[in-house]
Amino acid sequence: MADDSEWTKLPTEDKCLHKAWKARLTGYEEATKLFQTIDDEKSPEFSKYLGLVKKFVIDSNAVAQEKGLEATMAFVENAAAAGKTAGEVCSGVINKCLNQRPKTKDLGMAVLMMYIEIEKQETVQEELLKGLTNKQPKIVATCVVALREALRDFGTKVISVKPLLKQLQTLLEDRDKTVREETKLLVVEIYRWIGPALKPQLTSLKPVQLTELEAEFESLPPGKPVQTRFLRSQQDLKAKMLERQALVDDEAANPAATEGGGDTVDAVDPYEFIDPVEILSKLPADFYEKNGIKEVAGEEGSAGGIAEVS
Fold this sequence. Notes:
This protein is mainly alpha-helical. It is built from 15 helices and two strands.
């Protein structure tokens, strides 16, 4: 019979794939230390794990899975090529971590946010939107939480609001109470960022839901929301925000000087969140003639390039 500890002699990447969970756990711990000590973000050492990290987050053993998530976090933070793994890893996190025990769920959320930080926000948001259709309410609710936290931290310049708006009514009518409650918080967070421009998107909700949300909107403290977490490419913006915050802190000692000068949410055009509709083809054939409009040919001789009123 082979020695059960024979795996201790294996390279780290082989331990991470071993059938014994203790071997995998040790492999993940070794990988975490390795990723944190490599100075070159483009080191070939990272390349060995490009196809492996997606397995770290879906480990069947709960204890090993937590260590796998820690290793994944270290990999995403330090490897230049980590973005290549975003789709598969985020999918694994959403489907196998967000319905687990609190520590596993929190680590999974942290991994998702780190992928946003390394400029993979579109991939993360896409996978979270997929998660909203999961059959497990726990996963759906936690995806809503993740979207809200991403919006709260990174703001609307990083997290796109428009695809979220399309999901609100379905989520607010979900059979699961937790999903509904978390969605209300997401709606309030969206309102913080885009203000009254959100309201036209809510007209189809039930009156009782609208009343509850209006009350939440009214109770929000005045002031403009600000981005608190930044992409790798936004480090200059981060420095400016920190400098601005320092000035605010200095002025806090003299509130009279800033009384009544609080920021408000920038005006947002409600039409920005409505999908464009092509209407020219739906006009009656005699529309231009009846309205005294003369069509002017476009660049290629097609009508409708410009219209002149005769």
